[in-house]
């Protein structure tokens, strides 16, 4: 039998469900939280592992359940395309690598309510957006017992040679430039996202080489397109012959990702 592509095999092996958690109220904006790679943004959900079937794949929430075979059938036709998202866009940036985590919110009638990139330290919106576009095409069918959530962490190449900056270095490098990202909500005519992990690679003369985004609350693609353009124009601290990697959380706020009314 033909083996699935490595990335898709990882997807299928790691699929798990997360319970529904009531949303918290909004809070005033705060300064960005600087984090050294890899960034981890906790979405407030318990870490108890779901039960597994004989193939190691189980998708279940506190309400509904999705047949693992339905997930397999949905993903496999897109195997080559998912692999190509990374292979076709990494180019000479062999230092570019990391992990992402996708989350599908499936309504009780089987409709895909939302697909989010809830975690990522990949630092490449072009690749992240490509994966999201494919993930949005999937359909897992109607859950048994009500709405369900499906999440899948995916590891790309670990990269090589990227220098992880310390928190102090990251703070000095970014300075107040993060405020420019706030202008993208107006430019893209969309709501300003919260809890966005921004991962950046910096190269010669402090030029930003690549930038990526993730948020447990989700964000509009148009905002990320604009934010990518803003960040790529930044000149940060020169890593002096190296490629440096840094992360910060833009617009931190109480998580609103798990409102029962979303599905």
Task: Give a short synopsis of this structure.
The protein contains seven helices and ten strands. It is of the alpha+beta class and about 260 residues long.
Number of strands: 10
Overall structural domain count: 1
Residue fraction in strands: 15-25%
First CA to last CA: what distance? 37 Å
Number of helices: 7
Order of helical and strand elements: HEEEHHEEHEEHHEEHE
What does the main sheet amount to? 5 strands, mixed
Structure notes:
The protein has 263 residues and is of the alpha+beta class. It has one domain. The chain is built from 7 helices and 10 strands. The chain has helices at 6-14, 68-75, 79-90, 125-135, 167-174, 183-187, 221-232; strands at residues 33-35, 59-60, 65-66, 99-106, 112-120, 148-155, 162-164, 196-202, 208-214, 243-250. Strands 1, 7, 8, 9 and 10 form a 5-stranded mixed β-sheet that branches. Strands 5-4-6 form a 3-stranded antiparallel β-sheet. Strands 2-3 form a two-stranded antiparallel sheet. Helix 3 packs antiparallel against helix 4. The relative contact order is 0.22. Mean pLDDT is 79; it is low at 1-5 and 16-61.
């Amino acid at each position: 039998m033909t083996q699935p592509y490595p990335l898709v095999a990882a997807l299928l092996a790691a699929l798990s469900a997360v319970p529904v958690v009531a949303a918290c109220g909004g809070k005033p904006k705060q300064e960005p939280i600087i984090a050294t790679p890899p960034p981890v943004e906790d979405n407030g959900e318990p870490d108890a592992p779901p039960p597994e079937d004989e193939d190691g794949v189980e998708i279940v929430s506190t309400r509904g359940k999705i047949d693992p075979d339905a997930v397999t059938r949905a993903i496999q036709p897109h195997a080559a395309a998912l692999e190509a998202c990374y292979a076709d866009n990494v180019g000479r940036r062999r230092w570019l690598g990391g992990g992402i985590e996708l989350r599908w919110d499936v309504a009780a009638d089987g409709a895909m309510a939302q697909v989010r990139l809830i975690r990522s330290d990949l630092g490449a919106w072009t690749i992240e957006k490509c994966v999201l576009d494919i993930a949005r095409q999937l359909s897992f069918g109607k859950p048994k017992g009500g709405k369900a959530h499906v999440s899948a962490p995916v590891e790309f190449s670990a990269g090589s040679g990227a220098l992880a900056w310390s928190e102090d270095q990251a703070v000095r490098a970014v300075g107040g430039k993060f405020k420019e990202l706030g202008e993208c909500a107006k430019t893209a005519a969309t709501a300003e996202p919260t809890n966005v992990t921004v991962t950046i690679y910096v190269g010669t003369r402090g030029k930003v080489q690549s930038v990526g985004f993730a948020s447990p609350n989700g964000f509009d693609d148009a905002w990320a397109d604009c934010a990518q353009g803003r960040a790529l124009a930044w000149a940060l601290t020169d890593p002096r012959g190296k490629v440096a990697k840094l992360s910060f959380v833009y617009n931190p706020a109480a998580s609103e990702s798990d409102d029962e009314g979303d599905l």
